[in-house]
Amino acid sequence: MRAHPAGPLHGSITPPTAAGAPPAELGVLDPHVWPRSATRVDGELHLAGRAVTDLVRAHGTPLFVLDEADFRGRAADFATAFADPELGADVHYASKAFLCGQVARWIAEDGLHLDACSGNELALALAAGFPAERIALHGNNKSLVELQLAVDSGIGHVVLDSFDEIDRLAPLAAARVAAGGDPVSVLIRATVGIEAHTHEFIATAHEDQKFGFSLATGDALTAAVRVIREPALHLAGLHSHIGSQIFDTAGFEAAAHRVVGLLGQIHQATGELLGELNLGGGFGIAYLADDDPVSPTDVATRLRTVVAAECAALGLPVPRLAVEPGRAIAGPGTVTLYEIGTIKPVRLGAGGGPGTPAVRNYVSVDGGMSDNIRTALYDADYTCVLANRVSDAPPALCRVVGKHCESGDVLVRDLWLPSDVAPGDLLAVAATGAYCWSMASNYNYLLKPPVVAVRDGVATEIVRRQTLSDVFALDAVLADAPAPSPAPDQPAPEHAAGARS
Ligand SMILES: Cc1ncc(COP(=O)(O)O)c(C=O)c1O
Q1: Which CB contacts under 8 angstroms, 24+ apart, belong to 4-13?
Q2: Is 212 in the pocket of ligand 1 (CB under 6 A)?
Q3: Any catalytic annotation for residue 117?
């Protein structure tokens, strides 16, 4: 479903419902979808040993609740699955999924590497004490300042994305070498002509998108040859990333086939044997009970097998593998808690379809597209449950919407909730750890919610709630004006970052 060109506010946005038949029981926590610690105690949702009502009393709503053991457990699962006693392997956490100082520290402590996609992500990781040599910097338009930071801080790799970038980086690297430093280690990002999302992948000869050097046009080989001839740059290996929320390893296997072919071409053209192959991220997670992601162990086994076979076919030594999971580490362990404000039964028009009720309840919560843009942006599917209690009221067809001035401000498009849900009840939306807080905005001047990490019953605010003063401080007229505190739409008490409850 795409919005009307004039914007969703002006378009018809009543698609047929995809809710299906109501489930036999409402409010069930499918272990696929919910954080590993999620459970119900006397009907109430508990996360990492804390009741949601208790967390909301202390930290307000909307609230991101992150199960620390889940996040770190999934990072460890990838590290274990890819560990290779002979060649080693690097698991980079793709920090764009969700990054803050505490997450950078966990990833550092747990021995993973980290991907930054901008100079500011890099600066944040460095400020949190993340070891520079375990950071890779991505981006299709890295500025001189970003590249200078990468060079000066001694990060592990710069992932090169364009010829302009090679021109920009080479003199900075040469200056470092002239001052007695090491050459700058780089990867070439190859666009391999594979596009994968969820169950399918498409292999094409050309690639109409902004990232990387095309393999099909020969740009990737040209770039590699050029970098190899640049004495201040060290070409450590190749990189490829084919998409997101992928459930099937076939796309990765096709990409590995092509990128190993490029290793062979580079060897033929220059005699260089590159030692690293980074196959990117994109490993899918379960947002809905029917989603069936591949386990890190299966992904690792498949990728190792394919790369080994391709290398054997070309007579190349097997390179060290790297991957960059973001969503698969950060996504499943976090839920967003919202308070219901209004419920509006709306008659369904012709779009209702056979077997669907005549009415859909629009359940409005106190956040929306400013804390989760993915439903509006990507048609993403989420599920949610009534969190503060269970109910045996009959199911009602619902759509969970935010409080923004957009009809497209939808959080959960189609679901069944108990018909007695009421203003003041809490809803928990599952699997919101990736690309929700990190894509949050201040649309309609809603404030960014806090993130609370919970472990063994102790909740720590790892990112505090934004205040209206934070926002006023950026405004030329209002910088010194007193801001109502707490903000009018957020009656919850404010907490300093690091506050515990
Ligand atoms: C280069 C690169 N690596 C890794 C990722 C992480 O993807 P995911 O969070 O789906 O694992 C992305 C996401 O866009 C990416 O562009």
Answers
A1: 7/406, 7/408, 8/376, 8/406, 8/407, 8/408, 9/405, 9/406, 9/407, 9/408, 11/407, 13/407, 13/408
A2: no
A3: no
- Point out the ligand 1 atom lying closest to the alpha carbon of residue 435: 9
List 100, 117, 311, 405, catalytic entry: 405
- Mean pLDDT taken over the chain: 92
What is the three-class DSSP state of 186? strand
Domains of the chain: 39-67+333-472 (2.40.37.10), 68-330 (3.20.20.10)
Distance 165 CA to ligand 1 centre (A): 20
pTM comes to 0.94
| Peptide bond just before 486 cis, omega within 30 deg | yes
Residue type, 399: R
Ligand 1 within 6 A of CB of 94: yes
**Enclosing H/E stretch for 135:** strand 135-137
> Residue holding tokens 């981006």?
139
Residue 356 token pair: 């669907």
H-state helical runs in 249-342: 250-270, 296-314, 327-330
C-beta of residue 421 within 8 angstroms of C-beta of residue 410: no
For ligand 1, pick from 74, 191, 324, 439 the residue to mutate: most ligand atoms within 8 Å of CB.
324
The Cα 240–Cα 154 span in angstroms is 23
CA of 325 to the centre of ligand 1 (A): 6
Q: Which two tokens stand for residue 492?
A: 């919850």
Q: What does the pLDDT look like over 188-221, one tens digit per residue? A: 999 999 888 877 787 775 678 899 999 999 999 9
Question: How close is the Cα of 389 to the center of ligand 1, in Å?
Answer: 36
* pLDDT tens column, 132-181: 999 999 999 999 999 999 999 999 999 999 999 999 999 999 999 999 99
Cα three-residue angle 63-93-128, rounded to 5 degrees? 70
